[in-house]
Design a protein that fits this description.
single chain, mainly alpha
Length: about 150
């Protein structure tokens, strides 16, 4: 996905919204071009519309997303952009590998958080089904946690 984004944008020298319009999944990789990477929620806020996670991305929103991200691209990772030239073969490979690594780490973190939350939910559900306790029969409720004012 990252290499596809780099190639489709001439190694980030041509940030044309048509690239994301035609393949909105590339927006996931594009969020990791900046340092630090931009979360989906932050990108939505910066663009002013929900752009992350869409199956179809209108051309104007795709361009807005690339304009926002383009202004924040990590120029240490992509020095050719500030020097107005094509990347060397080494620079291109390093930038793709670096971005791919950042994306992979974040995907792994998300997966682990999701797995952990799922295990916790399953444990609570199991606990609530075992023994005499069922969902809704806990020894306290939100109502019992609020004390009535004393006169």
């Amino acid at each position: 996905m990252v290499e596809q984004l780099f190639r489709a944008t001439a190694y980030l020298r041509n940030l044309d919204g048509a690239v994301l319009r035609d393949n909105p999944a590339l927006l996931e990789a594009a969020r990791f071009l900046v340092a630090p990477p931009v979360s989906e929620d932050d990108l939505d806020t910066l663009v002013g519309h929900r752009v992350a996670g869409r199956k179809r991305l209108p051309a104007e929103l795709a361009q807005s997303a690339l304009d926002v991200l383009g202004a924040m691209i990590d120029v240490i990772r992509c020095p050719w952009l500030t020097e107005g030239r094509e990347p060397t073969q080494y620079e291109a490979k390093e930038a793709v590998d670096w971005t791919t690594g950042l994306l992979a780490v974040e995907q792994l973190r998300t997966e682990r958080r999701t797995e952990s939350a799922k295990r916790q939910q399953d444990a609570v559900a199991h606990r609530s089904r075992s023994g005499s306790r069922t969902a809704g029969s806990w020894p306290w409720s939100a109502r019992s946690a609020i004390r009535e004012p004393t006169p």
